[in-house]
Amino acid sequence: MRLWIRAAAMAVVMAILICSSASAETLRGDQLLIMLDDESSSGVQANVNRCRAMGYIQGLLDSYTVFSTRDPSLKVFCMPEQGVSSAQARILIVKWLKEHPERLHEQARLLVFHALAEAFPCKKSTAGDKDGQSEQIVVPRQN
């Protein structure tokens, strides 16, 4: 029984180390798409790639939350009150990247924000606006 517990603990530690490894280079959209939607690698490698990509996206979302909470003028998208699961975010971002292949050379972080801004636009709330028309969101494009 003790051996099984040690093996399980070691597996958890290894998974955390693999999923938390980061790279200093700038990730491009094509690289993120491969990591999120990799069907060519073995099951283990595909899972590692997906885990790394989702960690990258979660880091972007965490940073965005901090900065947009401190300065609401930085809000680019507005998540639904019930939130979005990691699986939903992955599906949404993969779909957007596949629909915009001409932009895959751009920085992944910008493309993630474009995908989320398109999926979850913020509602403009003014006194004369009863139906909450969507506000135009502008995300800078990399040249």
Description:
Residues 127-143 have low confidence and may be disordered. The protein contains five helices and no strands. The chain has a single domain (26-124, 131-143), classed as Orthogonal Bundle (10k-s Protein, Hypothetical Protein A, Chain A). With 143 residues, it is mostly helical. The longest helix is centred in the middle third of the chain and has 28 residues, at 43-70.
Draw up the topology in text.
Blueprint: H1 2-20, H2 29-36, H3 43-70, H4 86-99, H5 108-119
CATH topology-level name: 10k-s Protein, Hypothetical Protein A, Chain A
Q: Give helix and strand order, one letter per element, not per position.
A: HHHHH
Into which percentage range does the β-strand content fall? under 5%
Which CATH class?
Answer: Mainly Alpha
Number of contiguous helices: 5
What's the number of domains?
1
The largest sheet, given as strand count, sense and whether it forms a barrel, is: none
Q: Report the strand count.
A: 0
Share in helix = 55-70%
Estimated radius of gyration? 18 Å
| N-to-C CA distance | 58 Å
SS content category: mainly alpha
